[in-house]
Amino acid sequence: SGADFSSAVLNSTNFFRARFLASPVQWDATLAQFAHKHAQGCLWEHSGGPYGENLAEGFATPALAVDAWAAEEKHYQYPDGGFSESTGHFTQLVWKNTTHVGCGAVNCGSGTGGDAAFGWYLVCEYAPAGN
């Protein structure tokens, strides 16, 4: 159900945010609607929208996708930090100024190659944006 989906995303997101001393985020229906609309296109590319954005494909559950984003922390260069392609999902996930998240997921099937997403395609939008 929608409530189970949003709870899974929030619980996993806020678990990792707490580990890095970032305040919990709240679910935002506007962000979720934006994310779902982008996910429906099944294109493996960022929307270019006004929010921070994380994408994941092929994970069985939203929590596993969030876990994968958090796992990028091992590549993060302390104390300098800064954005890098290899840690951008992690830094957005725990960005301290972010207060709201909304996500959408669509089953894109086996994909069609190229820029097509495959399996469960999860898009999460964050506001205010990090990175």
From TrEMBL:
SUPFAM superfamilies: PR-1-like. Residues 4-131 form the SCP domain. InterPro entries: Allrgn_V5/Tpx1_CS, CAP_dom, CAP_sf, CRISP-related. It comes from the Eukaryota. Pfam families: CAP (PF00188). One of its GO terms (cellular component) is extracellular region. PANTHER family: CYSTEINE-RICH SECRETORY PROTEIN-RELATED. This is CAP domain-containing protein.
